[in-house]
Amino acid sequence: MPGIPYFSIMRYRHKNRKLYLRIRFLARKMRKNGTKAEDFFWEKVRHRQLDGLKWNRQYIIPCKLTSELTKFYIADFHCHELRLIVELDGQIHLRQQEEDMIRTSRMSKYGFTVIRFTNEQVLTDWAEVERVLLEYVSG
């Protein structure tokens, strides 16, 4: 990641540190209060169940916009080995499609691939979700 080493997210020593701590608190709260689709997805990928890959839930992604401004995004699911982010979109995402496009664009600039599924896809067609993910993994 330009400007912010990927492995040093925790090392903020300036004004972004307070913001990061608030975002971290929010991410932890979101982990404990996930949607049905998030909980279902997590049960399917945790403990390296999907092709031996390690996943993180509600993972903080910093995107440095300027030398003074860092935007922190909370990705629903993140696979470090693949630099892959999986976003599960519920009803709210129908109203914020433009924001989602900006968010995806910024994360892509930092080398992440973002794959989106609807909550309904995850809950009703896991085989297809798994197929898409495994297809991405195999290249």
Residues in β-strands, percent: 15-25%
Overall outline: globular
Number of domains: 1
Unreliable segments of 5+ consecutive residues: 1-13
CATH architecture: 3-Layer(aba) Sandwich
Write the element-wise H/E pattern from the N-terminal end onward: HHEEEHHEHH
CATH topology: Endonuclease, Chain A
Task: Trace the largest sheet across and list its strands.
Answer: 1-2-3-4
Counted beta strands: 4
Q: Quickly give the structural class.
A: alpha+beta
The helix content is 40-55%
Sheet having the most strands? 4 strands, mixed
The radius of gyration is: 15 Å
Mean pLDDT: 87
The CA-CA distance between the termini, in Å, is 22 Å
User: Any idea of the CATH class?
Assistant: Alpha Beta
CATH H-level superfamily title: VSR Endonuclease
Count of runs of 4 or more consecutive helical residues: 6
What does this entry show, briefly?
The chain contains 6 helices and 4 strands.
Give the arrangement of secondary structure elements:
Layout: H1 16-32, H2 36-45, E1 56-64, E2 70-79, E3 84-89, H3 92-95, H4 97-109, E4 113-118, H5 119-124, H6 126-137
Parallel strand pairs: 3-4
Antiparallel strand pairs: 1-2, 2-3
